[in-house]
Every structure is written in structure tokens, then in C-alpha cells.
Structure to design on (320 residues):
């Protein structure tokens, strides 16, 4: 903390993160848990991207969007998890004011982008199932890239719009944040000013948008499911399997967001554990959901492993 000129009030230049626990034994368990999940998340999502790029059978709009979702999930995991693991064995878990703002910027940019991408994926499934003859015409590569650019633009606007309200907040008192990362609810609470309106704006921006988007997606998938049930064709089971995977991901993504941002202030201790679920568990589960609930991904994964094994065998024979 820095002392202000001409007064006794000090300006906060860094925040003390209280983390998850002060117990040494639990910290060791958390270190092992987070490290395993982080590595598995990175490998799983990057494997999906590699499979989709290398297998021409998966060069379709749905898998293009899925590969981008996996890339976004790797970004989500890298925003707070590495520092969280690093801070477990630090006595003073601190983050600078600029570092805190930067972390919030990336959390909401990537989170907002993923939110829009999930809507795009729902639209993709709607067109594929309800308008199959026009699917490849509508969802061509140019359209997919445009929708992806729109998703990133909306995510950026969403993040900047919130930061514009809090970036110049005065911090001259408490600097302890009961969390392992920076986010708007706890950040705003530490400001030396009346924050009621800002708290409402954050709730409206992040909370209500999350709730509204979630309800729109659920209604959309219910409509698609009803459409699928009306058409008892051979591809209906495949469509149902794909849709169930999408719905599961939507619930896992929006559940913690809605509880964290829609729940009235003050913040709850359970928010920290919901944040872990959103930052680490959901990105870890997405590859599992899309792999084990999707036969095309399973087949593509086998083809990739067969290619790797055959390449290693040829290399071994050549060295003999």
C-alpha cells in the first residue's frame, strides 16, 4: 500500500488473496488435485483440436466450432489455475491492482466469447436438424469464421463494458480478498465508495445475461429435441446423442455463473468452489463429454492413435 500525499489515507496497490484454505494437509491435496486436472484439461482439449484438424472426416461446421470451444477452454484454464496452484504454498498470496484488472479482463472476455459460441453451436444444431438440405450452404466456412469473430467481439465488449465502471475505483482501505482470483463482486466490495449501483450493474451485465442466455439455450434445445422426436429416422439417435452432449456442457457452464452473479450481494463462501468448477472442472469435462458421447470423435481418435502407432513401427523398423 502506498501513502497518499498530504494525508494519512493509503492507496491500495496490491490485493491479498486469502485462497481456499490455510491447512497444510489440505493444500497438498489441493495441489495434487488441481495439477492433475489442469494437465488433463490441457491435454484433453488440445487432443480434440488435433483430432479435428488431422481428420478430414471431421472437417464440418460442428467440429470447427467444437475445436474453437476446446481452444477457449484451454484459455479459461490458464487464466487463474496456474497462479492458484503456485499460491497454494505461498504465505502471502498477493496480486497487483493491474494484475487483478488484467485477470478480470481475460475472465470476462473469454467467458463472454464462450457464452456466445454456445449459442452459435445451438444454432448450428438447429440448422443441421431442422434444415438439413440447406445446412452446408448456410453454415459454410465463411459463415463459421464470421460467427466466431462476432463471438470474440461480443466477449470483448462485454468485458470492456464492465471494466469501464470499475477501472477507476478508489481503493484506500481493506485489501484482503476472500478468493484465489480476482473477479468483480469481491473487487467492487473493497472500493472506498458507495458500490450499490456498481453491484447492480455487474449483476445485470453478467448475471442476467447468463440467466437469459441459459434459458434461451434450454428452450432452443427443447424445441430441437421435439423436432428430432417427430422424425424417427436412423440419424435420430445420433442427433440425440450430440444434443445431450451440448445440453450437458451448457448446464455445466452456466450453472456456476448464474449462482455467482445472480445471487444477491454480499458474496458467499461457496462462490470460491463454484469458481473452481467453472475454471477447472468444466473445461476438463467438456472433452470427456464430447468424446464419449460422440461416436465420430471416438472413431477419429482411434484413427489418430493407429496412425501414431504405425508411424512409430515404421520408424522402429527403419532404425534396425
Amino acid at each position: 500500500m502506498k501513502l497518499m500525499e498530504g494525508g494519512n489515507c493509503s492507496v491500495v496497490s496490491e490485493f491479498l488473496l486469502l485462497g481456499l484454505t490455510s491447512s497444510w494437509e489440505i493444500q497438498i491435496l489441493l495441489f495434487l488435485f488441481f495439477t492433475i486436472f489442469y494437465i488433463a484439461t490441457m491435454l484433453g482439449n488440445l487432443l480434440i483440436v488435433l483430432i479435428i484438424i488431422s481428420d478430414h472426416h471431421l472437417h464440418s461446421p460442428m467440429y470447427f466450432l467444437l475445436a474453437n470451444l476446446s481452444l477457449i477452454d484451454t484459455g479459461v484454464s490458464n487464466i487463474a489455475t496456474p497462479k492458484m496452484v503456485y499460491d497454494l504454498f505461498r504465505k502471502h498470496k498477493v496480486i497487483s491492482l493491474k494484475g487483478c484488472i488484467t485477470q478480470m479482463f481475460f475472465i470476462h472476455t473469454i467467458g463472454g466469447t464462450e457464452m456466445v459460441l454456445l449459442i452459435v453451436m445451438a444454432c448450428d444444431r438447429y440448422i443441421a436438424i431442422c434444415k438439413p438440405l440447406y445446412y452446408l450452404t448456410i453454415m459454410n466456412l465463411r459463415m463459421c469464421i464470421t460467427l466466431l469473430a462476432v463471438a470474440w467481439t461480443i466477449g470483448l465488449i462485454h468485458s470492456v463494458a464492465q471494466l469501464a465502471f470499475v477501472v477507476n475505483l478508489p481503493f484506500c482501505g481493506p485489501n484482503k480478498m476472500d478468493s484465489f482470483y480476482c473477479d468483480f463482486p469481491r473487487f467492487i466490495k473493497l472500493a472506498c465508495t458507495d458500490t450499490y449501483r456498481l453491484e447492480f450493474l455487474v449483476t445485470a451485465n453478467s448475471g442476467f445475461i447468463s440467466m437469459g442466455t441459459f434459458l434461451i439455450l434450454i428452450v432452443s434445445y427443447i424445441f430441437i429435441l421435439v423436432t428430432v422426436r417427430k422424425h424417427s429416422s436412423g440419424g435420430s439417435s445420433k442427433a440425440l446423442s450430440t444434443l445431450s452432449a451440448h445440453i450437458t456442457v451448457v448446464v455445466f457452464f452456466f450453472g456456476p455463473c448464474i449462482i455467482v452473479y445472480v445471487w444477491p450481494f454480499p458474496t458467499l463462501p461457496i462462490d470460491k468452489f463454484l469458481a473452481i468448477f467453472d475454471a477447472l472442472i468444466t473445461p476438463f469435462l467438456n472433452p470427456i463429454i464430447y468424446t464419449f458421447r460422440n461416436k465420430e470423435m471416438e472413431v477419429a481418435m482411434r484413427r489418430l492413435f493407429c496412425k501414431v502407432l504405425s508411424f512409430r513401427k515404421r520408424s522402429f523398423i527403419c532404425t534396425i
